[in-house]
Specification:
The complex is a heterodimer of chains A (215) and B (74). Chain A is built from 8 helices and 5 strands. Chain A has 215 residues and is α+β, with helices and mostly antiparallel strands. Chain A has one domain. Chain A starts with 24 loop residues before the first helix and ends with a helix. Chain B has one domain. Classes of the chains: A alpha+beta (215), B alpha+beta (74). Strand 4 of chain A pairs antiparallel with strand 6 of chain B.
Chain lengths: 215, 74
């Protein structure tokens, strides 16, 4: 635990969620498996029902197709919910955004700054994986299989310009990565391709970059 | 010159500046830092790429201290 290091100060926001287990690599692996099992649990019965109906009565094909549609749509809805954590919360010109963008740019490296301006997502390498930080949430691409965990988390000030919202999350993440993930609400875990399909087009290169960085 | 910056609706506001040799300016910055903490702001020192440190007292030797609002799960 980083808390054992001298001088280390854990994320102060952890005090507001004392009941939560620390979100570490083991926790992420476990929840990744749970989400995977959950996805199978609600898709396989629909697929089996569709196959069974076709086997028993081919005239039931429309109903079987509806069952297959359910097997496809339900995971897509979950992925949509996951991808939505990084959808822009504020649109149009925001007071202070130009100034906030300058500060955020100072916090990022050259490549990450360009990526953030193009996609709206700040890429940050951590010990748990590669993060993509948006205005009201973050995606974490874990190493290896490239599963994406979606976290809903935001600064507690609705009047901040968009780039300041990202800077808030970025600084908190840099202070204490596990603490950041613990404070955030875990919204979804699943295959990167599934989340990518539900991201706004402009953000997809951000996820592609994070997947490459996580390999 | 070190600076104490608050992220707010204007983008950011520089609340105080000090140098290691200027005790008076540092004292002003310390008071400002404490006032902002009382309002719920959290002090953070960016330590370069990928690192930042949460501070409860204003470090005299920091180049920049950023005050941010708490975050919460949505």
């Amino acid at each position: 635990m980083p808390g054992a290091q001298p001088g280390y100060l854990a994320l102060p926001e952890l005090a507001s969620v004392p009941w939560r287990q620390p979100t570490d690599a083991r926790w992420l692996r476990r929840w990744g498996r749970i989400w995977h099992a959950w996805t199978l649990l609600y898709t396989v019965p629909f697929i089996a029902a569709a196959a069974g109906m076709m086997w028993l009565e081919p005239l039931a094909a429309p109903v079987a197709l509806a069952a297959l549609a359910h097997a496809w749509i339900i995971p897509e809805l979950y992925a949509f919910r996951g991808a939505s954590v990084v959808r822009p919360k504020a649109r149009g010109a925001q007071p202070g955004e130009e100034v906030a963008q300058g500060l955020l740019g100072d916090l990022l490296g050259h490549a990450e700054r360009d990526l953030q301006r193009d996609t709206g997502l700040a890429l940050e390498r951590g010990s748990l994986g590669v993060w993509l930080v948006g205005q009201g949430g973050a995606l974490l691409v874990t190493p290896g299989r490239g599963r994406v965990h979606c976290f809903c988390v935001a600064a507690t000030d609705d009047e901040l310009p968009p780039s300041d919202r990202i800077a808030h999350l970025l600084l908190a993440l840099r202070e204490d990565e596990e603490g950041f993930a613990t404070v955030a609400n875990h919204a979804f875990a699943g295959a990167a391709w599934r989340v990518r399909r539900r991201l706004p087009g402009v953000m997809r290169p951000g996820l592609d970059a994070a997947r490459r960085a996580a390999e | 010159m070190a600076s104490l910056i608050r992220m707010d609706r204007t983008g950011h506001t520089t609340l105080a500046e000090w140098s290691a040799e200027d005790d008076a300016a540092f004292e002003v910055a310390v008071r400002e830092f404490a006032d902002q903490q009382a309002l719920g702001y959290i002090g953070t020192v960016p330590d370069g790429p990928g690192k930042a440190t949460h501070v409860r007292e204003l470090p005299r030797d920091a180049n920049m201290v950023i005050l941010r609002r708490p975050i919460a799960g949505g």
